[in-house]
Amino acid sequence: MVSSDSSSLLLYNARILTSKQVIDGGWLRIEQQTIMELGYGDPPQDLLHSVSMMSINVEGHWLAPGFIDMHVHGADGADVMDGTVEALVTIGQFHARHGTTAWLPTTLTAPLTALQKSVSAVATMYQEQYRLSGVQGAASVLGIHLEGPFVSSDKAGAQNPRYISAPNLITLEQLVNTAPSIIKKITLAPELPGILPLISWLTQRNVIVSLGHSDATFQETMKGIEAGATHATHLFNAMRGLHHRDGGVVGACLYADAIVCELIADGYHVSPEVMSLALRLKGPDHIALITDAISATGKPEGKYQLGGLDITVMGDRSVLADGHTLAGSTLTMDQAVRTMVQRVGVSLQDAVVMASTTPARELGLADRKGRLAIGFDADLVVLNESLQVAKTFVLGREAFCR
To answer: Residues 266, 292, 350, 377: which is the catalytic one?
Structure first.
């Protein structure tokens, strides 16, 4: 619940993570959803005691840019495929409690009409999210990510194979024209017949093409990259792996400098050791942490559905009826950051780059999101010493307080 709608906010006694350094014992001033000033030590007394300023003592905790999740299907019983603004608000509110301040709603393979309904709902949310009642406390919607339907049946993973379709421009145009400029990213398989011209068509319209759910060879993947693909969807998962005689999709995406790789950092989808290896090869500037969270995220263990498929949530894992195929995740971004710091051994600064700075850059928002800097959006997360979320601020408004 939001505690205040004050447009003037002062956060002090914070360990501020900027892109270049840690300001230990610093302060930050927000006006009208924007970071206006930050500094070392005690804030100016006129700010601290201003009657028009809401002041918050951060108590020495970390202050970092809010997390940006580029791959989210749902949470708290709501799914992007519900195709409603209400579902998007529920999902955004849940993930804001875990440090996410902006996100890309992500679809599943589905009939065209269902995909168009989800695109339309995201467009409405995108255009009206600051006016709709009940949206306070929800992370901002940045557009939509279409995961499929042009993917490989052999690497469907938890995508419903019934709705996987062959690449065709007519379907693509219908989806894009449903809400022009709302589709920010699409996952597809580069080996499919006729896909390369579609990759070029998408990149010309500033849509991020991400390679995933693919059984492509190294050479087929490189052709997709040459056509304009710049991302890898949940690296290592639902794609042809690395082999010493054929690098496959994994090898090509690790090899190509242009590719930014998503990682589901829950410790199940990719082992900590392999995540460390990927980080050595790509660096934090070319890895984006994602959740791939599904509607069962935040719900008790049990039976659920994902895209018309039966799944079971057991502990921190969700699997298909076969008992071993992972079906999205129940991960949150704060847990992903903790995994990278506590199990992979990266610095908090690098983990935040992967959770915030890199996604912001890839979405064309590097001039206003993903960093704590003057003139940037006031999307902030306060983390305690255990890296648990203490507070989340979305555009200067307190969206969550533990």
So the answer is: 292
